[in-house]
Specification:
Strand order of the largest sheet of chain B: 1-2
Largest sheet of chain B: 2 strands, antiparallel
Shape of chain B: flat
Mean pLDDT of chain A: 83
Number of strands of chain B: 2
Structural class of chain B: mainly alpha
Radius of gyration of chain A: 41 Å
Largest sheet of chain A: 7 strands, antiparallel
Strand content of chain A: 25-35%
Bound molecules: protoporphyrin IX containing FE
Helix content of chain A: 25-40%
Distance between the termini of chain B: 24 Å
Mean pLDDT of chain B: 77
Oligomer: heterodimer
Chain lengths: ~575, ~350
Amino acid sequence: MAVRTGSDRNSTADSTAGSAARSTVGAISDVLRPILRRTWRRLISMRTALVLLFLLALASVPGSLLPQRPLNPSKVDAYLKTHGAWGTFLDRIGAFDVFGSVWFAAIYLLLFASLIGCLIPRISVYARALRTKPLKAPRHLSRLAENASFDVAIDAERVAELASCELKPRWRTAIRTEKDGPRGQAVTVSAEKGYSREAGNLLFHISLLFALILIAAGRLLSYQGSVVVTEGPGFCNVLPSYDSFHAGRGVNQGNLAQFCIDSLNSFAASYRADGTPSQFKADVTYSEGLNGPGRHDVITVNHPLRLKGDRVYLINHGFSPTVTIKRPGQAAFTDTQAFLPRDTFYTSEGVFKEQGSGQGNDLGLQGLFAPTPVDQGGGVITSASPQVNNPVLALLAFTGDTGLGQGLPQSVYSLDTSKMKQVAAKNLSVGQTMTLPDGTTVTFSGYKQWASLQVSHDPTQYFLLAAAICMVLGLLGSLVVRRRRLWLRISTGPSDSDSSDGKSTASPDSVRDGGSRTLIEVGGLARNDSGNFAGEFAAMLDRLRRSCAADEAALARPALGSPTPLDDADTVGAGYIERD
Amino acid sequence: MAINTGLAQLSEGLWTAATGTYMLAVVGYTGEYAFGRRGKVNSIAEKHAVADDVVRERSLVGAGATGSSAATPAADKPAADKAAADKPGWNVGAGVVQTRTARSEWWGRAAIALTILGGAFHLASVAIRGIAVDRVPWGNMYEFTLVVGLIATLAWLATLVRLPQLRYLGLFVMLPVLVVMFLAGTLYTKASKLVPALQSYWLAIHVSSVATATGILMTSSALTILFLVRSRYERLGAASGRRLSELGSRLPAAATLDKAAYRAAAFAFPIYTAGVIFGAIWAEAAWGRYWGWDPKETWAFIAWVLYAMYLHARATAGWKGNRAAFINLLGFGAMIFNFFVVNLVISGLHSYAGLN
Ligand code: HEM
């Protein structure tokens, strides 16, 4: 039997079939609803949150132990080559892009749902708590962790007033009268403080929620491009400029922010006496908007150029040797190419490719540049320092077909020598020349430096910073604020109240003349275990007793007009009953 | 400004002095601990308390949660309460039961004096290193380790000001600090200037907050280990094994240790959170993105999530106690992994190790 959907429930064609269908739908929803409700309840329970947090931590571990494609694709390829089927399996389950994998997203989203589900009821509970008065005093104050009692000779209402005055700025108080409590008729004061603890906790979790949303939005709306620029003309912020470019799905790649790094005026690396680098500086001229004025800036490590919405970073640097090539019967020309550093001493590799006049007449130069060369024997050089000191350019010259003629894109850092023939090799100092068999001369005429600049754009990051600050503030609030409850039960009657059967007939007014005393019982509860509640309670009690004693003294000497200063409250005050 | 090698050597000498003094302090704490044992102390198996010439220190609050409170005969109570009332604020470290003899008192005082002296050497060593290299003294693993140890010592001394009755646990707090001092020795890096990547005021802010949090979290995990020993003892009594029950019988109540470990972690967590956020701000300025799942960042995240889990677990029925304690230790395990394994074995962008 087919299950009908809600829309055809009211079909009148066959009333019995209709009601059967209705009852089926009803039955199914009766079955489903509690299951859904239970699932939801379970999802938003603290226990689930704990499990999900643990899974989140666990799932991150492979992300740090296995090579990750977004960070280092070549390491991933190397891993795949050496690990065969195991590697393929790992690749299939997304272990080389853990933080972009489906299962990581699943944990993240479940936690997100759990967080929302957990927060909504807590917010409404909190809102209600703010509007309700502090709880009524429990019957047995003496059973609370902190309790004490004392008596005074002023009436109950006055004590309640004094107490709430004493508590006022930081505690929320409520004064109630009790008809038949444990002491019969009594006035009670309920006080509570530390509401901002829960507020802090909620602020933390809500900010966390926003942070998660902003991180996700950032992935959609951000882009990052990097480009190697040799000293000289720069580039503009358009897609074709970049050597590599990554963008989220929400980025309109044809319409990036308008700015240009007009030129890299100079790049400078400085070193200390012991050879360690002390500073890298890229001196640039840039302009914003269409034909904006050229401005000048120095980009260093840790100090990007911050433009409206985009930032330009100095990521890496290296050398760009220049060669002057003169082919027989042609004018001489120069070529400068960025070389990639191979080690920390900037032994750098790169190529020069020159298309010849006819097929198979191309010239290719494979080069190795050493800023401070040392000969390892047999003319093999390497660099001993990143600082420049009589640099050497070692060149292997090839002739043949570079493949440039086919118009296919090629790497500017490598030379395909499969259709070429090595014709010469030489190590050149600046100014030296090598001559090829066909009469072509290649002169190492100097070098420039290059800087690798990265342009980053993420419109969400400042909002995320705000969310992060709120998270910390919320945490501080929730971990520093202390929740406390305090109750006073103020009753009149014989101070020996243990015999009390719960009914006291003394009216508050009879306290003074009848010589009967007002009994004040105080109980306190710490609702979270931070801080020294016993100490706080003792101090609170002390203040209360002093203010009662002062009031009592003022009443006892009406003729003197004004109360005497209190040098020792205890002698004036009432007897103190040991706490139990 | 060049590196002042004379001052750098002075700083290294002070490291030696601090380490030696801490060793003596640990000897002192051990003495206090050893001589502190007189009679049958607070053993569940015995179910009765000692009433002899030793000074008995006991507090009220929270003790009800542990089996040990049952061990106190009613006659003993008022006196103990009186003692507690005489010293306001004294009964904070609820449930602490330890007998003290004059001899153990002497050793304990000597240990504290040595800890203070060692701490002074330690502080001077760190400060002078900073002057010698003319930058913040936490620019590589050696310096960072030294700072973490200093924070742990200072945190311990600060705890003692408020909770002097915990003094006899000094052995368990200062022993890890001593280990940290030796570790710093193995990670030793010559006084040097910073590479450009580390030349940022965020180094001062980010690394100091992470070092502070680490020092406090280390204390929290030491207390957590003691908690696990003690809670096993409270569950099993003498059956928890001879050595462990011997140790367990002289520890404060499990509830006290749990609370102290929690307070330390809860205090450190916002500092650590802020430290990670400072790191993200620095990463934005240095690498163009606030977060890139670099191994260092990944493990910082793992440790953070584990500590968040710990704070949750302590508020969740069924997860309190031992389970929460294991999560705390797991969290500190992640911190240690991040410091040693990630810095030394897994390479990333963080040019911090200062070794190689
Ligand atoms: C997304 C991951 C989460 C993180 C990183 C996180 C983090 C934290 C932290 C650090 C605390 C302790 C600070 C404080 O007391 O305010 C805390 C407390 C708390 N969290 Fe979460 N939380 C997360 C998700 C959740 C979820 C899903 C729930 C609901 C089931 C939840 C409910 C609570 C509650 C009730 C407390 C108060 C515990 C107490 O009274 O000590 N949290 N959370």
